[in-house]
Each structure stands twice: as structure tokens, then as C-alpha cells.
Write a structure and sequence with these properties.
single chain; alpha+beta; Sulfite Oxidase, Chain A, domain 2; 8-stranded mixed β-sheet; 13 strands; 20% strand; globular; disordered N terminus; binds the ligand Nc1nc2c(c(=O)[nH]1)N[C@H]1C(S)=C(S)[C@@H](COP(=O)(O)O)O[C@H]1N2; binds molybdenum atom
């Protein structure tokens, strides 16, 4: 997709080098794991395991969107939704150490010239990693600002040459109740699945994220690879992806299947359309600073399309957003 207008969040193509040497991720395992530091969070919100933190080389910092202060690393990694590890916000940080993000295989399937199984490295090696600071707005009316490391989804999609029959892109999370103990119970229909219309997937904002704060993706945030669609509610941003499928019909999306009257396929952030059980007009920003106190900060206004309205306006021209919510 060509970028027609210059916007604050545009990626300068001149800043992206197409072939950047990509070194094996093992080479960057820092023997001394960066300690998670003296945390300001109360102990019950802290992960009970010391995860190894690995830096990516050559992450291109992008001037992206408004200069907003990112949520702290502790905030991003201790307040999560990842039902595969439990339904409580602190469950993923406590439980996700059983996930093995390496080795990892992603299957590319469906209507595309190139399909097959690809290792994590094969998938990301040809691409320049970018840092993009995006707001994440959960449907539960809280939000964070997250400095993702990732690759534009469009760049990955183009490599596999989807055919004209590929109208949607469907995503699936790993199913392995041993690695993901939350799957031993039927909190949701496993696997967690999500989907985007092809033009949404090709929008320059859509990102396949492989890390945060310049480092490999923490398990609780969806290691090793997850989707980030910043103008949609957080649940569209499916974690720990093992399959990307080019399909003709609108694919199933977990929360839409779970409660179709509450969660539509599109799930665009829209303060004018309330959830049937609560308002979507405002949100609480989780800064991660001051521990639990941050959970009780005053609410701020939720922006249409999470503030990315200009970038995505063309996608929904002529659509009744109340019907296609
Ligand atoms: N597989 C999977 N992906 C998921 C979820 C989940 O439970 N399982 N939760 C979603 C929800 S509701 C949100 S708000 C975001 C949270 O992402 P974060 O923990 O990295 O902030 O992940 C989304 N992706
Ligand atoms: Mo969410």
C-alpha cells in the first residue's frame, strides 16, 4: 500500500535499509540477564521468575506519533491479558515462564504463491526491525503506551505473494496445554484466533511485533511473535502466533465468537459506541509508575480509532460503524 499523505506517524522509507545484516539471536543472549530492577510494583504484581532479557541489534527507531511517555517495562510485563496463562492480570507474568519461544515455527498457509513452515529467524531475518511506540487500548477501558520492536505486517505479507482470493488474513495462537497451563481449562475456545481484512493487514500501522523496549518479546506479552493493530481494541493483537492463513471469507475471531453482541469482527476503538455493559468514552492510562497507584489515575478521553483515525479513515469509508463494530 502506498502512503499518499504525509502524517506524523509515517515511516520514512529512506530510513529503512532493506538488507540489514541480521545476526543469530543466540549471539545476543546476554549472559547477565538484565535484572528487572528494583521494582516499584507491589510483590504480587511482580513476575516470580527472572526471565532472560535479550537485546535486538539494529532496531531502527522511528519518529512515530505523539511524544508520549511509554509505560514502564514493569508495567508492560506485569499487567497483561493472556488467557492461555490465566485470566487474572498478574497471572501471565507469574505463569508464562513455561512458554518456550525458541525454537518457534510459523506456518504460512492459504491463498498465497509461497506457503510453508518457517522458523522465527527465517521469518524475520530479511527485514529491518523497527521501534514503534503505539498506544494499546484494551476493551476493558485501560491503556498503555508500548515501545514495540517489529516488522510492518505488510512487508511480511508481500513476501508470500497472496493471490486475489486472499481477502482476509487469519491468525492462530499456539495450542499446548503443557506450555500454556490456562489451556487446561476452557476459559476460551482454543486456539485463540483473530483476523483482519486484507487492506487492514496491509495498512502501514499493522505490525508483527517481536519485542518491547528493544528486547525480545517477554513471554507474557506474546513471545516470540504477536500482532499489534493499534487502532483496534487490544484483543485483536493476538499473541504467540503459529499460523498465518490467507483466506477468502471473514475468519473467526475469538472474542467475537465468545460474545458476538459485545465484540464485533472489526473491534475498532470507538468512544461513540459503548460496550453493552460499560462506556468506552474514557480510559485509564497505566503508566507503570507508582505501582498500583497507576491503576487509579484519573480517566482520560478515549480517541476515535485510538487516535489513529487519520491513518485508517480510508479503510472504513461508507461503512456503518455501528453495524460493523
Ligand atoms: N493469544 C492471546 N492473545 C491475546 C490475548 C489472549 O488472551 N490470548 N489477550 C488480548 C488482550 S484482551 C489484550 S488487551 C492484549 C494485551 O497485550 P499485552 O499483554 O502485551 O499488553 O493481548 C491480546 N492478545
Ligand atoms: Mo484487552
Amino acid at each position: 500500500m502506498l502512503i499518499k499523505h504525509k502524517k506524523a506517524s509515517d515511516v520514512k522509507s529512506s530510513e529503512i535499509t532493506s538488507k540489514t545484516a541480521f545476526l543469530n539471536r543466540r549471539q545476543f543472549i546476554q549472559a547477565a540477564a538484565i535484572a528487572s530492577g528494583a521494582s516499584l510494583l507491589p510483590p504480587f504484581l511482580n513476575p516470580s521468575f527472572a526471565a532472560t532479557r535479550i537485546k535486538y541489534p539494529n532496531v531502527k527507531k522511528m519518529a512515530f506519533g505523539e511524544a508520549e511517555k511509554p509505560t514502564t517495562y514493569d508495567g508492560i510485563t506485569t499487567y497483561n491479558n493472556f488467557y492461555e496463562f490465566g485470566t487474572g492480570k498478574s497471572d501471565p507474568a507469574r505463569n508464562a515462564h513455561t512458554l518456550k519461544p525458541e525454537p518457534w515455527t510459523v506456518e504460512i498457509a492459504g491463498h498465497a504463491a509461497k506457503t510453508g513452515k518457517f522458523s522465527f529467524d527465517d521469518l524475520i531475518k530479511p527485514h529491518q526491525l523497527e521501534e514503534r511506540i503505539y498506544r494499546l487500548r484494551c476493551v476493558e477501558a485501560w491503556s498503555m503506551v508500548i515501545p514495540w520492536v517489529g516488522i510492518p505486517l505488510a512487508d511480511i505479507i508481500k513476501r508470500f505473494e497472496p493471490t486475489s482470493k486472499a481477502k482476509y488474513v487469519a491468525f492462530e495462537t499456539l495450542v499446548d496445554p503443557k506450555q500454556m497451563p490456562g489451556q487446561q481449562r476452557k476459559a476460551l475456545d482454543w486456539p485463540y484466533v483473530e483476523g483482519l481484512r486484507m487492506d487492514e493487514a496491509m495498512n502501514p500501522l499493522s505490525l508483527l511485533a517481536v519485542g518491547v523496549y528493544g528486547e525480545h518479546m517477554p513471554n507474557q506479552n506474546g513471545a516470540p511473535i504477536r500482532l499489534v493493530v493499534p487502532w483496534k481494541y487490544g484483543f485483536k493483537s493476538i499473541k504467540s502466533i503459529v499460523k498465518i492463513n490467507f483466506v477468502e471469507k471473514e475468519p473467526a475471531a475469538t472474542w467475537n465468537v465468545q460474545a458476538p453482541s459485545e465484540y464485533g469482527f472489526y473491534s475498532n476503538v470507538n468512544p461513540n459506541i459503548d460496550h453493552p455493559r460499560w462506556s468506552q468514552k474514557k480510559e485509564r492510562r497505566i503508566t507503570g509508575e507508582g505501582g498500583l497507584g497507576a491503576l487509579f489515575t484519573p480517566k482520560i478521553e478515549t480517541k476515535f480509532m485510538n487516535g489513529y483515525g487519520e491513518e485508517v479513515a480510508d479503510l472504513y469509508k461508507g461503512m456503518d460503524l455501528k453495524k460493523f463494530f
